Amino acid sequence: MLDLVGRSCLITGGSKGIGLAIATRFARAGATCTLVARHERPLRDAISILAKHGQQDHRFLVGDVGNKELWEQAVKMNPRIDILVNSAGRSQTSLLLRTPIEEIDDVIRVNLLGAIYGTKFYLKEMTRARRGCIINVSSVLATTGGGGSSAYAASKSGLHGFVKSMAKEASRFNVRINNILPGYIETEMTAVIRSSAKAEALLKTPLGRLGTSAEIADAAYYLATNEYVTGTDLIVDGGYATR
Ligand SMILES: NC(=O)c1ccc[n+]([C@@H]2O[C@H](COP(=O)([O-])OP(=O)(O)OC[C@H]3O[C@@H](n4cnc5c(N)ncnc54)[C@H](OP(=O)(O)O)[C@@H]3O)[C@@H](O)[C@H]2O)c1
Questions:
Q1: Phi–psi pair at 36, nearest 5 degrees
Q2: For residues 232 and 155, what is the distance between their CA atoms, to the nearest angstrom?
Q3: Which SUPFAM superfamilies match (predicted)?
């Protein structure tokens, strides 16, 4: 199905993992993508992957989503986008007592402020066009919490309040905003988790396996194409949140 033909998307964290899977899914549906991340080499590799699907004119921008200057640059490069996906994120794997203040600040800055900045910078043009869709990649830990992930869980539950509020502010302009809450998904982010922590995550996942980035991309595609969904948290977690 090519139902995103003519749509322009900007996907942060699009060079790898979940962000790249979403970009690939959208490109296959005919969209043109701009990918954002901090390292150029993986971005270039990701663009070559996208070029194998549909459009050829995908682009990338190097920068940190937690910096306002990156968003000024993004809007200059690409003033009008139809779909913004905030997938860039960083994890935390230490108890609060052992987590340096700088790391706490960075988790909140990248995971929460990054998504808020992106929304703020692109909202004006979306409201003017009377069309827009914003998808944040949150986490199931926003609802369950997780030992060793306090700042991370706080950054992701911040997205819950943000999306609820923005759905109220933006719906009259036909701009929709939603969160996806993945459980444990096989990506570089989870590759570094200790095997004991991974085994524990699997025990807590009724479906008994990690999810795939493609399964999260399917959820993003649903949110991008279903015009009656806004202000929601879509959990895709193999049942993790039920435990
Ligand atoms: N994997 C999971 O199990 C899981 C579960 C729940 C939620 N999530 C969420 O899903 C999102 C994607 O995670 P993932 O597993 O796909 O991670 P990943 O494979 O590590 O990819 C992270 C992506 O974000 C980019 N990135 C990281 N920090 C950035 C920054 N400050 N500015 C711009 N780009 C940045 C990375 O590229 P650079 O390093 O080049 O910047 C990369 O493209 C994250 O928000 C994560 O919290 C993941």
A1: -125, 135
A2: 17
A3: NAD(P)-binding Rossmann-fold domains
Instruction: Quick: pLDDT tens for 43-72.
Output: 999 999 999 987 779 999 999 999 999 999
Could you tell me if 32 and 83 are in contact, meaning their C-beta atoms sit under 8 angstroms apart? no
Cβ–Cβ under 8 Å, residues 215 and 172:
no
Task: Give the tokens for residue 77.
Answer: 């490069």
Nearest CA to ligand 1 atom 25: 13
CA-CA-CA-CA torsion sign (54, 118, 93, 216): negative
pTM for this prediction: 0.98
Closest alpha carbon to 162 in 128, 124, 134, 129: 134
pLDDT-derived band at 193, boundaries 50, 70, 90: confident
Q: Which H or E element spans position 125?
A: helix 114-129
Q: Which atom of ligand 1 is nearest to the CA of 106?
A: 31
> Which secondary structure element, helix H or strand E, spans residue 183, and what is its range?
none
Closest CA to 32 of 57, 3, 61, 2: 57
Residue where the block lists tokens 């479906």: 207
Please give the share of the chain, as a percent, with pLDDT higher than 70.
100
Ligand 1, residues 18, 65, 237: which to mutate, most atoms within 8 A of Cβ? 18
Task: Please give the structure tokens belonging to residue 172.
Answer: 């009259």
Q: Does domain 8-235 have CATH number 3.40.50.720?
A: yes
